[in-house]
Write a structure and sequence with these properties.
Elements (H helix, E strand, L loop, with lengths): L29 E8 L7 E6 L9 E6 L2 E6 L3 E4 L9 E9 L2 E6 L2 E2 L1
Antiparallel strand pairs: 1-6, 2-3, 3-4, 4-5, 6-7, 7-8
């Protein structure tokens, strides 16, 4: 497993990585996760975004939209839930794929 941590202050920060074979998930089970704390509620923000070099709508990952969390493929299927974002709250978000099942977990609770 690859474990890395980065601290971003929310002012124009992002991390961009070159292509890496380890990101070719195929149909294997996987977990993508983030921990964050927001001082304001973002609009449409991508926290993890895999584009596969194609850009456009053919990408997947973790994002917030309209005040709640979403995970999945942004062009073919997203999983979101009835979870309202709150400022100054610690969030642990996980996108978990086990076999063909994709789930969103917010602070350890499946949404």
């Amino acid at each position: 497993a690859v474990t890395k941590s980065f601290t971003l202050d929310g002012t124009g920060d992002y991390l961009e990585m070159s292509d890496y074979a380890g990101f070719d998930f195929g149909s294997n089970s996987m977990t993508l996760e983030i921990m964050c704390r927001m001082t304001s509620i973002p609009g449409d923000v991508y926290y993890i975004d895999f584009t596969g070099g194609n850009g456009g709508d053919n990408h997947f990952g973790i994002n917030t939209y309209a005040g709640s969390w979403r995970v999945g493929n942004f062009s073919t299927g997203l999983i979101g839930g009835p979870h309202t974002l709150t400022t100054n709250t610690d969030y642990y978000i996980a996108m978990v794929r086990s076999g063909n099942t994709l789930t969103l977990r917010v602070n350890g609770v499946q949404i």
